Amino acid sequence: MQNTPQQSPITLRINAGLKKRYNTEKRFKRMGISAIVIAMTFLVFLFGSIISNGYTAFQQTYIQLDVSFDQTFFTGENLAAANFPGLVKKTLYSMFPDVTSRNDKKLLTQLVSSNAAFRLMGMVTKDPKLIGTTQKIWVLADDDVDMLIKGHYDRNVAESNRRINDKQLAWIDALAANGKITKKFNTQFFTSGDSREPEQAGIWGATRGSIYTLFIALALSFPIGVAAAIYLEEFAPNNGWTDLIEININNLAAVPSIIFGLLGLAIFINFWGMPRSTPLVGGLVLTLVTLPTIIIAGRAALKSVPPSIREAALGIGASKIQMVTHHVLPLAMPGMLTGTIIGMARALGETAPLLMIGMIAFIVDIPGSVTDPATVLPVQIFLWADSPERAFTEKTSAAIIMLLAFLMLMNGLAVYFRNKFERKW
Amino acid sequence: MDLTADMTNQPFPTQLFGDDAIDTAEEKAKPSSRQTVGDPFVENPRMICRDVYVYYAEKCAINNVSIDVGRNEVLAMIGPSGCGKSTFLRCLNRMNDTVGTCRVEGDIRLDDMNIYDPSVDVVPLRASVGMVFQKPNPFPKSIFDNVAYGPKIHGLVSNKTELAEIVETSLTKAGLWNEVKDRLHEPGTGLSGGQQQRLCIARAIAVSPEVILMDEPCSALDPIATAKVEELIAELREQFSIVIVTHAMQQAARVSQRTAYFHLGDLIEVGPTDRIFTNPRHQLTEDYITGRFG
């Protein structure tokens, strides 16, 4: 403000209101900043809780067994038919010779995952020369041992309230003292399908299921959505029918997705007889879920192309379809891709409609094609979150981390393609 | 074209309006009169428009306009904003088709072909009646691709050498070749406003049209760029018929041979440019060019 006494009345009135104006601005800025701070706090809290719960799942406890592949075990022609569980038991008993009672032996064998026998079988069938030798082999520990080693079980509670009793605790400590128990990177988690045993459960089956399902959804919804948007925006006559179609598309975008699941169940599975629980049907249902989003975003993108470009193309004698494919579509493509990604991100997280078509089934095998039964990441999260075993808690968080990573990968790709297609003006 | 055959196409005798007797101030047509005065018709015209009405929904935007576009001439259309000159211009290559509510009645002929006949395809029509718009609107592509686009989609060339030749000739005719020959593959949108407009003209002439329509081509340009475009228009007249809509009366006076004055959807007066600006025969025309309104 100036200090000269000759201020005009207008200036004085303007100056009198200035403070109020600036205060409004400051207040608005403060509200904006606090909104962002609150949002960021929740985000940090969310990520913090997921990661702190889930990071331990990327390691798994292994126990080292000194297995002697005794000739007496492999008498039959078929090596795979040999008594591998017995071999595991025998090895454990030999490691703890003082365990003699039947009950204690049972407790002892519970320390090792049932997967250990399969691992030995795999090794022997692959390399029969192992027979007759003694090998130090790391096998998966049982999930309760894993939880104890990771510190999720409290040793100090009463024995009756513990999943691991005092004897087992002593054996585990003995193994740990000899360096025969350790945590290793959990490759199993990234390579196997679901399992009832938490230590054997993996995310790869659900990831493959998600990839197949999204592939089907993208391959169908992108071309159909873009074509529909182009027709409605550029070619359709402006009459009651197109209005009706537009209203319906806008309404479909808001329909709860479980309804689309029911539709998929009725049409794709019951009427067309497609195989249930498959990525094929899942992809078709998610196509229905994402189509309205893609069409609406596509039309908005087409609308935003400046009319001068259309006039330029038409003025030189381009036909309408040439105008669209040569000029309008390339300019609208970034916007359409954004819409598609929003749709795909929604499809990736969609659970409800997939429950209706049976993708909630417990499936151990990793799907090899779109017609194999499969599940998807969000459904896998739901299944694990529903399981009572303590070890599934960390698996659930790890699966959420995988889902988020998948989402970020997809969005990253989308941003890359959008920047690639974007033209400078 | 045979002259006598051409005359038969004109439903009105030229003499009806070609009355040279009315040229004193006292005898000027009254402001209330909406009858076209002057000489709207020429011998051996390129385009013939008779009794043209244009409606937007129910609103009449062009009311009974009859005018000819001659060969190798620049016809300027002037008039206050909203007088319908752009609407009329856009009828000449059916750009109004893109406006859903627009309806055109009457007879518009290009070399004897009724362009509003249902059998006429707009794609070849727009190739022979090119258009340059108010705002320079090059495609967001390279300079080369901008000019090459028309010949490519109409299949005017059979190989790349021919295409390159057309691009060079068109850019040369548009007076842009020397400025852009070293950066043909840079985006056309990176040029200055005046260069962009000349690029648009080059794009229009690349398909060898017969008529070029220009809708206020200089209104977004500075005086130097405007001078260049005007110079270009004068050169292009040797090959094409040009119809130009302009708000600048000086521009009309500089570039055109004939001038048409529109007022609220009516064609008020048509005549040789020098006569329109020195001795208008309609009171409205005089009021407009002397700056009494508009």
From TrEMBL, chain A:
SUPFAM superfamilies: MetI-like (SSF161098). GO terms for molecular function: phosphate transmembrane transporter activity. GO terms for biological process: phosphate ion transmembrane transport. Keywords: Cell membrane, Membrane, Transmembrane, Transmembrane helix, Transport. It is a multi-pass membrane protein. It comes from the Bacteria. Residues 207-414 form the ABC transmembrane type-1 domain. It is found in: Cell membrane. GO terms for cellular component: plasma membrane. Gene3D superfamilies: MetI-like. This is Phosphate transport system permease protein PstA. It comes from Desulfopila aestuarii DSM 18488.
From TrEMBL, chain B:
InterPro entries: AAA+_ATPase, ABC_transporter-like_ATP-bd, ABC_transporter-like_CS, P-loop_NTPase, PstB-like. One of its GO terms (biological process) is phosphate ion transmembrane transport. Residues 47-289 form the ABC transporter domain. Keywords: ATP-binding, Nucleotide-binding, Phosphate transport, Transport. One of its GO terms (molecular function) is phosphate transmembrane transporter activity. It comes from the Bacteria. One of its GO terms (cellular component) is membrane. This is Phosphate ABC transporter ATP-binding protein, PhoT family. It comes from Desulfopila aestuarii DSM 18488.
